[in-house]
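Protocol step 4 of 6: structure prediction from sequence.
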Amino acid sequence: MSKKAVDIKTNQQDLNPAVEAAIKEALGPGSHPMGNIVDTALVNAEEIAKLANQSKGVSKEGKGYIKDHYGNSLSAVGNEDRVQSFTNYGFSADTLNWPLWLALYNDSWVFRRAIDKPAQDMIVAGFTLHGDRDYSQVYKLVNKYKNDLTELATWGALFGGAIAVLLFEGVKKEDLAKPLKKDQIKGKRFKLYVVDRWYGVSPTINDLVGNMKDIDFGKPKYYEVTMADGRTQRIHHSWILRYEHRTAPKLIKNGQLQGWGYSEGSHIINELARDDQLKTSITSLVNKSLIEVVKMSGMRGVFMGTDSGNETQLRKRLEMVNWARTYNSITLLDKDDDYNHFELTGLSGLAELMEKNMWLISSALEMQGILFGDLKGGLSQESDAFARYAKTILRRSDSFWRPVLYKFLKIIFIVLGYEDSPDFDFDSLNKTEENKNKVSAIGDLSNMLGKLTEDGIISKYQYAKAIKNFMNDEVINLDFSDELLNKLKLEEEQAILDTIADIGKRRNREPNKLSSGEINMSNPFGGTSAPVPSSTQPDTTEEIESEQPAPEGSGEGERIENEGNGEGM
C-alpha cells in the first residue's frame, strides 16, 4: 500500500474544512450519539498535525520533507521490514496496535481462526459443578448466554481484554455506579453487554479494589463504559465481568497494558508475516514457472509511447493470439514474429516447505494439527493432535476463563436464590477419550468395592455412594468413620469370643481332645494348635506349650488387636 506525500504546513492547525464538514454532517454531535468520539478524533488529529510540523524530519525547515514511502506491516516489506526481527529481539508494542489486529482479523483467515476457535472451544467444552444440589437451572442459564460469553472470550483474545456489563431488569442506570446488592438481582432477568478494551472502556486505574476477599481484588473499582446508545455510564466493578488474556509481568501489565493482558497476535505476528511472505514467494515462482516471449516488430516504439497506432494494432494481435490458444492451445503468429518459452523446474519441494511453515504457526499457537486441520488426511478426534489441543484448551480455561466463569456463576446462584458458592471444574474437549477412560476406571473401582462388600468391610450403601462420587466428582471417597471402625472391631472380637465359648463347651464334653485347627485355650490370640501324637503327649499343659509354641505373627487374635489399635489401617 503506497502512501503519497502529504503537505503538512508549518502553521496548519485545522483539517480540511470540506472533510470536517462532511464528517460532522454525517456524525455530528447534535444528530448522532457518536459525535463526542468524532470531536475527540478531530482534536487528536490536530494535535498530531502540530507535533508533525514541529518535527525536523517532516518540516520544511528541517530539510527532511517526506516525499513518498511504502510499507506493509503484515507482508514485512518497505519501511516495515521484519527480517531483523528473526535474529534480533526488541521491546515491541504490537500488542497495543489494535488497527493491525482489526486488519488481520478482517483479512487473514489463519489469524481469524487462531482467535475464534480456541475462544469457542473454551465455552463449548463446558464445566461440571460439584455438590448435592440439582444444577440443571444453572446449566440452562449459562447455555442461554453462550454466545455472549464466546464474544467476551473472542474480543479478549483479539485485543488482550474485554468486559461484559450485567444489565438487570428493573435496575436503574444510577444504581450501576453503586455496589451490587443481592436483593436487586434475585429472581431478575438480565442481559450481557460485551465490549472490548479499546471501544469505549475507561477503567479507573488509580482507584482499585482493596478488599482481598473480593474476586476483583487489585482490579479497577469503576469503569466508564460507552453503552449501546452512545452515552457514557459509570459502572461499579461488581456489575462487570472482566476478561484478561495472556498474563504479563507486573511491570508491563500495570504500566504499558494498563492492567489488561497481551493480545493473542502479539507473539505470532512474525510467524504470520513469514507465512505470508512464503506464500507470496511461492505464488511468484509458480507464475514464473513458464515464461513466454513473443518477438514482434515495432515493440520499441510502443514501449517508448511514440507509436500509439502501432500499440492499438499490437493489442489486437495479442488478443487474437490468446483467443486462439484459449480454444485450441494453438499460438498463431506472423511468419516474421518469433516465439520462445522458458520453463522453471524444481518446484516439487515447495509443498513440503509450505507445510513445514504451517506447523510452525500451529506450534506457536499450540494448535498443531488443528489450525490448518490434519495435513495428512483430515482431522480425527482419535488423533494425538486433538488430545494435545484439548489439554491446551483446558489449561487456557483454568488460566484465563476461571475468574470470569466463577463470578458469572456466583451471579446466577444469587439470581436463583442459592446461598452457597460455586465449585466447579472444566470439562475436557476430548470427551470421547475421557469417557472411555472413565468407564474403564469405574469398572476397576467396582471390582474393588465388590471385594470389600463381600468381605463385609463396607455396605452396599457405601458401595453405591462411592460409585456416585466417582462418576460425578471423579474422587474415590470411602467413609471409614471411627464409629464404623469400632463396629468392625467389636464384630471381630465378638466372633472370637463366640469361637472360644464353643471350644470351651466341646472341651467340657470331651476334656482329653483338642482337634486340629482349634484355638489354643491357653492363648486364644496366639493362633491354632497343632495336634500332638498320643504316644508322646506330655502330661502337663506347660510341657505342651513349651514343645509346640504358636508361630509368631500367625495368630488371628494378634492381627485383630493390631487393627483395633489402628496399626493395620
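Step 5 (inspection) to follow. Residues 2-66 form one domain.
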